[in-house]
Design brief:
By secondary structure, the chain is of the alpha/beta class. It has 15 helices and 14 strands. The structure holds pyridoxal-5'-phosphate. The site of pyridoxal-5'-phosphate has 15 residues, from helix 6.
């Protein structure tokens, strides 16, 4: 039997088990399809044959409508670095909320939180809060264009920076053209897409166009947690300087995850602008920030630049709201006081990645495990991917991804997505839980290989 046939036979087997356990989620999905396009609020949360409806989350666990318990490796899209709903954060937010959820005026917390962020994130002197990672990137691009007076943006194949027009290109194969219906090609004509980990492609782009900024995740996230090859990020920094562009690190995933100071600290490479999301909001909605040195951020300063046209715009109703800032401040302040957590955290997940990869190797090298720190990507590819193209085009079978996701659900383990396995664990996942993940992975691979 081919791998494809074996995977299909196992999918058939585990779909039956899944459906027996999740009848109420199935019913809910029928209802959902009538009122939510695709039955979901965000298409990446769908998985086949129907998704689970999660009713409760606490610590590292989530529970579905049928009462099944799962160890969560998705953690609110990588938001919950200290697990779901840490008591001290929820308490702080609840208390603060009685004095106003959103003041709509300058408030002391935005000052205190900005001060804290400038202390813990390298190379930044000023901060502006936004409502999401997408928004942070949108304004960061504008800021970089304003600062350099240039138009072009370079991004990486597979790099996901949110659905903003100029960045919604080159995310999925074939990595060219608009990623969405309704996105005119004119809106992406100043965006150049190049492969990650390819320094020559970057130099070519910088040479050929008046590039305002290179925007990149230090470690590709949604493309399957693919890290930089030796010397790559330093090479990027040097080239960006040589050609007079800015380097934007999208640290929406890597920020406060790889290290308290994010990818800049972890890799010891300096960015000109850092964008943040997810963890910066402490687990509450409205998570986003742009951080950079004063010389760049001053382009947003209405006192120094009274005329709107002489400034770069950033703003929005819910920016700097009390709920998100209270949560974010409480969480980041806690992490700042427990910096030593990062070493254990990264060590544990370095070990997990090597164990998972060993499982791949001992099962006919059916897969490769990639990532850095606590970011884990699983790829059923012929070669270890070093960029998004390899991660997609080198796939042995799409069905193996479907099977892994489905199987893990039946083992009480959840992550997203069904198409690209990227796990973003928290600091409170235990070694025992990680061992269960490794065991389940080994058992599935044995079933695939020996069937
Ligand atoms: C690296 C990266 N940048 C930007 C975004 C967009 O952030 P948001 O979903 O908060 O708009 C994401 C979201 O997953 C992301 O992973």
């Amino acid at each position: 039997m081919s791998i494809e046939d074996r995977a299909q036979a196992l999918i058939d087997k585990y779909v039956r088990i899944y459906m027996e356990r999740t009848g109420r989620s199935r019913e809910f999905f029928e209802r959902a399809r009538k009122v939510l396009p695709g039955g979901t609020t965000y298409q990446i949360r769908y998985f086949s044959p129907y998704p689970l409806y999660i009713t409760r989350a606490r610590g590292v666990k989530v529970w579905d409508l049928d009462g099944n318990e799962y160890v969560d490796y998705w953690m609110g899209h990588g938001t919950h670095i200290l697990g779901h709903s840490p008591d001290f954060v929820v308490k702080a937010v609840n208390e603060a909320s009685y004095d106003g959820t959103h003041l709509g005026y300058p408030n002391t917390l935005e000052v205190e939180y900005a001060e804290l962020l400038t202390k813990v994130i390298p190379n930044v002197e000023m901060v502006r809060f936004s409502n999401s990672g997408t928004e942070a990137n949108m304004y960061a691009i504008r800021l970089a264009r304003a600062y350099t007076g240039r138009r072009y943006i370079v991004k990486m194949e597979g790099g996901w920076h949110g659905g903003y027009d100029a960045l919604h290109v080159g995310v999925n194969p074939p990595f060219e053209g608009p990623e969405s219906l309704g996105l005119p090609v004119e809106h992406i004509k100043y965006t150049i897409v190049i492969p990650y980990n390819d320094i020559n492609a970057l130099e070519k782009a910088l040479k050929s166009f008046d590039v305002a900024a290179v925007i990149m995740e230090p470690v590709l996230g949604a493309a399957g947690c693919i890290g930089p090859v030796q010397g790559y990020l330093r090479g990027v920094r040097e080239l960006v300087d040589r050609y007079g562009a800015l380097l934007i690190f999208d640290e929406v995933i890597t920020g406060f995850r790889l290290a308290l100071g994010g990818g800049q600290e972890y890799f010891n490479v300096k960015a000109d602008i850092v964008t943040l999301g997810k963890i910066v909001g402490g687990g509450y909605p409205g998570a986003g920030a742009i951080a950079s040195r004063s010389e760049i951020m001053e382009l947003l300063d209405q006192l120094k630049r009274p005329s709107a046209r002489s400034r770069s715009f950033h703003g929005g109703t819910f920016t700097g709201n009390r709920v998100t800032l209270t949560a974010g401040y409480a969480l980041i302040n806690y992490l700042a006081q427990h910096r030593s957590f990062y070493e254990n955290f990264n060590n544990l997940w370095d070990w997990v990645r090597s164990e998972l990869d060993r499982a791949c190797e001992s099962h006919d090298r059916l897969c490769w495990v990639t990532g850095v720190g606590s970011m884990v990507g699983i790829h059923f590819t012929r070669e270890r991917p070093i960029n998004a193209r390899m991660a997609y085009e080198g796939r042995i079978s799409e069905k193996l991804y479907t099977l892994l996701h489905l199987y893990m659900r039946t083992r009480g383990i959840l992550y997203l997505t069904e198409h690209t396995a990227h796990l973003l664990p928290s600091m409170i996942h235990t070694k025992e839980q990680a061992q269960d993940l490794i065991n389940a992975f080994n058992e599935l691979l044995s079933e695939v290989v020996h069937r």
